[in-house]
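Notebook entry, structure prediction.
Reason for the run: the old model in the group folder had no record of what sequence produced it. Starting over properly, with the input documented here first.
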Amino acid sequence: MGSKNKLKRFRENETFSNVFQPTRDDLVNGNFALKGNWNTTIFKNNNPLILELGCGKGEYSVALAQKYSNKNFVGIDIKGARFWRGAKTALEDDMSNVAFLRTQIELIDHAFAENEVDEIWITFPDPQIKYKRTKHRMTNSTFLKRYKHILKPEGVVNLKTDSEFMHGYTLGLLHGAGHEVLYANHNVYKQEGSPEDVTAIQTFYESQYLEHNKPITYIRFKISN
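New structure, fully documented this time:
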C-alpha cells in the first residue's frame, strides 16, 4: 500500500465514529474513558463483549458482528490503515455492534477493565518463530495474564492459526500451566463437528491458505488462575 493511500485511510479513520485511537500515554496513565465503559458508552447495552486481537482488515470482527447482532465486538490492531476496511464496511452497513481500537496488544489491560470482556479471538497471529522474539508471541504467559485480567471468570479465548508451530507452542503452554483446553484441532476443515464460527468465517489470507491445502488449526481455552 502506498504512503499516500495510508495517509488517506488514517485521515478517514479519524472521522469514523466506530474507531478509537487513544495515545499510549492516555492508556498507561488511566485517562482512557472507555475502559470499563465500552458497553454503556459505545454499544449502549449489556450484551457480551468480544475482542479480536490483531484484527488486520477486521474481516473476522465484522463477520462475527453480522452473525451475532446480540453481541458486541471490538477489533484491535496497531495498524489503522488495515482495519480501515472493516470500520468502513461496518459504517456502510449501519452496524452498531462492532468498533475498532488502534493500540498495541500489550496495552490491552489498559483499554479494558477487569472482568469486562466475555471472549477473545486471536486470528492468524505472527507466530514469532525466532526464539529471541518469544516475548511478542500472543499466547505467551505474560499475554495470558493480561487476557485473564480483562476476561470474566467464565471467559474463553479462541486461537485460529495456519501455524502448526503456534498451535503446538500454545497447546504445550496451556497444558503445562494447567489451563483448561476446551477444544483443539490441527485441521478444522477436515474434522467433522468443528465449531461453525471457525469454519464458516474465513479471512482473505485464510482462503488462500486453504487453496494451497494448508491446514488451519484451532484451540478454544479458559485461562486458570
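Summary: The mean pLDDT is 93.
The old model has been moved to the deprecated folder.
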